Task: structure prediction
Amino acid sequence: MKYVKTNDIQSILKWAILYLEKNGIKNPKISAERLLSDIVKIKKSDLFLHFNKTILAEDLKKFKKFIYKRSKKEPMEYIIGKIDFYGCEILVNRNVLIPRVETEVLVDYITNKLKKEDLEDKILFDICAGSGAIAIALKKRFPKLKVICSDISKKALDVAKKNAKLNKVNIFFKRGNLFKPFKNVKADFIVSNPPYVSEIEYDSLDYEVKNFEPKKALIAKDSGLEFYKKIEREIFKYTKPNAKLFFEIRFNQKKNVLDIFSDKKYLLKDVIKDFSKKDRFFFVEIE
Result:
């Protein structure tokens, strides 16, 4: 940080932007401003109003550490340790995937379906829950709904439990693969954002994803369709009549997923697009 002559916000940002730019970080201004705003607790959009403000030496040291991590292409969400998701503050670390803003489309779609339902004594499973972002957002919106999260990763569930506590929602957590934790329990609603990237596609993912986010939460065998097939094979054992299922899918999996859920017991099917108009979510209702 020796190149910063003063500790005012304008000088610090100027240094950080140049440093990130030299290290090949795209949109360095956005990264620098977001990381600094988190440290000094000033809205990113208001930083320019405080350009002459001098920050504390300990904050400067923390910012320098943040910028160094970002220069190595570590995602900002992991550096800061949290992200806003559908009105919830979600803690994240390298044991869980970073919730994407596109997934808020799925939560919004589910919300519109659930608000038409009587949710008294109704149960929702979130399978492959990761950070718990989807389940927490839905529980916060629908307090009457009983929500059960499952994940095969203990470390991921530890993060999800912290997030439930942070957002003051009562959610049940079970560790295990897919339906194994749900003995003698049947759901009215199931949501899942499972691993769906094929092993071939994994090589083409962004550097930040491949090198920082948990590989196990991304890759699926059978051209990325492994978990949809496994879920479909057991779905009728773990659902009540008229159960509704919601999935996130990869943009090129629409036809395959429709083929997987081709049984006549699936009465209603819908594929929903994300903000980029790509097929990203799948809804199906059971007989």
Remarks:
- The CA atoms of residues 153 and 192 lie 15 Å apart.
- The chain has two domains: 9-72, 96-286.
- The chain has eleven helices and nine strands.
